[in-house]
Design a protein that fits this description.
The protein is mainly alpha-helical. The chain has a domain of about 80 residues. It contains ten helices and no strands.
Length: about 180
């Protein structure tokens, strides 16, 4: 859930938390009352109607709240694995696919679910959902069926699907080089 409230340029869904919006408005109002010199606002300040603001401006407050969401997301044993594994190498360019608008919302949600290990693989069904069955990969039957295994480890998928994925990537790189250098290779 914390990923929902992280900005898209940082890998989240970019929703605005109602609770945080109210908190930010309270902080802004507290700053306004504290800084104003009007008689009625001075009386409001004396009555201490609003929470005292902690000295942060809105930009600092937003950044702090985003960091708190990221930390909570990363501490999740299952859903936080991807962020923990990519934190040292991911930057704003890593999340550009979220801001370019090239994907349908359903596709974007599916990719995020895969990153968060939230797809109902055999391992999740057995270990998390406590369903009857086997946690092993339905293709190779050698390892537990996790998102990571399906994407990069399955020996059966490696023979065909990984090669197709590699060929498509190599074709895209080749096309980009052709466009850059205006030559046909």
């Amino acid at each position: 859930m914390d990923r929902l409230y992280i900005p898209r340029k940082h890998g989240g869904r970019g929703l605005i938390s109602i609770q945080e919006s109210i908190y930010m408005e309270e902080q802004s109002l507290s700053r306004y009352i504290e800084d104003s010199e009007g008689e009625l606002l001075a009386a409001t300040r004396r009555e201490n109607i609003l929470n005292d603001w902690n000295g942060e401006d809105n930009k600092q407050l937003k950044h702090r709240l985003m960091q708190e969401h990221k930390e909570k997301w990363m501490t999740k044993p299952l859903h936080g694995q991807f962020l923990g594994q990519t934190q040292q190498i991911a930057d704003s360019k890593s999340w550009a696919w979220l801001t370019t608008g090239g994907l349908k919302k359903e596709t974007e949600g599916f990719l995020m679910a895969a990153q968060d290990q939230a797809l109902r693989t055999n391992a999740i069904k057995v270990k998390i959902d406590k369903q009857e069955g086997e946690a092993m990969c339905r293709m190779c039957k050698n390892r537990e069926e996790t998102v990571t295994h399906i994407i990069s480890e399955c020996s059966k998928l490696a023979q065909l699907e990984y090669k197709k994925r590699y060929d498509k990537l190599a074709g895209a790189v080749h096309w980009s080089l052709c466009q850059t250098y205006h030559k046909a290779f």
